[in-house]
Amino acid sequence: MQEQPLNLPDSTILIHSQALLRMISLSGSALPNEACGILGGQFIDTESTRLSIETVYPIANRATSRSFTFSFAPEEWVSAYYAMQKNRQSLVGFFHSHPTTPPIPSQADLAGMQWSSIPTYWIISLADRDASNIAHVKVYRKAGQTWLPSMFTQISI
């Protein structure tokens, strides 16, 4: 039997359930500070427009004002990147949290994202959580020189 190719939209972003839950958990554990890290996964096509996020690699936040900004700890950034490569994954995204603000890039976020060639940028907002304690998750995708809000599909394996 011949395997059928995946018929996915041109900008598909898939995220494994455990990776999404890990980002949310790390964000909650870091309160009142911002959490941050990198996302490892696979590109589904050669144009790098469709991707699957499999693993979250947390990186310590070394920013001076951690409650409203983040900066990767350099030694952990290198270790996380090597671990990701050891697992035969590609760097497919960055994430960080907003403890008290919506999941919209701040001016500092936009300045940091400006030079990035990484295809996705995730913000986990813990602001305005209701009784169910649900975080608000937003993913942004690079389109030329700007970042646009995108949709993602949560998958279970």
Automatic annotation (TrEMBL):
<dbReference type="InterPro" id="IPR051929">
    <property type="entry name" value="VirAsm_ModProt"/>
</dbReference>
<dbReference type="GO" id="GO:0008270">
    <property type="term" value="F:zinc ion binding"/>
</dbReference>
<keyword id="KW-0378">Hydrolase</keyword>
<keyword id="KW-0479">Metal-binding</keyword>
<dbReference type="InterPro" id="IPR000555">
    <property type="entry name" value="JAMM/MPN+_dom"/>
</dbReference>
<keyword id="KW-0482">Metalloprotease</keyword>
<keyword id="KW-0647">Proteasome</keyword>
<keyword id="KW-0862">Zinc</keyword>
<dbReference type="GO" id="GO:0006508">
    <property type="term" value="P:proteolysis"/>
</dbReference>
<protein>
    <submittedName>
        <fullName>Proteasome lid subunit RPN8/RPN11</fullName>
    </submittedName>
</protein>
<dbReference type="GO" id="GO:0008235">
    <property type="term" value="F:metalloexopeptidase activity"/>
</dbReference>
<dbReference type="InterPro" id="IPR037518">
    <property type="entry name" value="MPN"/>
</dbReference>
<dbReference type="GO" id="GO:0000502">
    <property type="term" value="C:proteasome complex"/>
</dbReference>
<dbReference type="InterPro" id="IPR028090">
    <property type="entry name" value="JAB_dom_prok"/>
</dbReference>
<feature type="domain" description="MPN">
    <location>
        <begin position="13"/>
        <end position="148"/>
    </location>
</feature>
<keyword id="KW-0645">Protease</keyword>
<dbReference type="Pfam" id="PF14464">
    <property type="entry name" value="Prok-JAB"/>
</dbReference>
